[in-house]
């Protein structure tokens, strides 16, 4: 890591996750030797100054303290602006690697000029360490739902074939720097959820292909059931599907998707929550629809709590 211009800039966001962030840093420092790199940690206004603690423990790490929580996109954009690497690798702080196959991702990016981004295989960190991500299916035209290939499947070789994917996974994605210059920074309007789908759509619109390459594996500490009944999750998913439709769909599909999200889906989901006694989640849907329909969907910061 003595070069002025490293091969890779690893960028990770830390929000009250000091222990996980340290484990990620140590896994990268211990395992990655095939390429030069820098590690950039963005402390997204954690309760404690975790950037200062990281600088003290890991002097070679670039630790940036943000005075406000600007969300997943905003935090990553802070890191991207500070990055010096030829390739930008966005990686969640609750991940780690066990082997040095990072160069395989560079090899994939350089295999053809039109390939702009690549995500590795992502496996759950907790036993039995099944696959979380082996590529995405396309979003359905009206409902804007999709699936992760290989989800909860054993890593038995079935998903060991590289292939193109319509979207990269936000927990681990590597990009050529030029892609960001052409497609723009990560959209901050979303704050949580759908931002990598929207960003991936911008990349493909700019003429790039996106790929999944299983030769590199990242382990993710996310639980398969994390936040399934969270107010924040319900609010942002409801709002951001509408934002995605307004920003990316055209003509009939745009109108049909907006109408479907704000009527059929909202009514069905609200009634299901009410029947379970979760009036807070039904309210989160209402606020999500209101924001998704009437707030600007342009690429400006928009951090709104479902309680407001």
UniProtKB/TrEMBL annotation:
| The entry's keywords | Glycosyltransferase, Transferase
Q: Which Pfam families match?
A: Glycos_transf_2
- Residues spanning the membrane: none
Q: Which Gene3D superfamilies match?
A: Spore Coat Polysaccharide Biosynthesis Protein SpsA, Chain A
Protein name in the entry: Glycosyltransferase family 2 protein
Q: Which GO terms describe its molecular function?
A: glycosyltransferase activity
Please name the SUPFAM superfamilies in this protein's record: Nucleotide-diphospho-sugar transferases
Glycosyltransferase 2-like domain mapped to chain residues:
9-181
EC?
A: 2.4.-.-
Write out the similarity annotation.
Answer: Belongs to the glycosyltransferase 2 family.
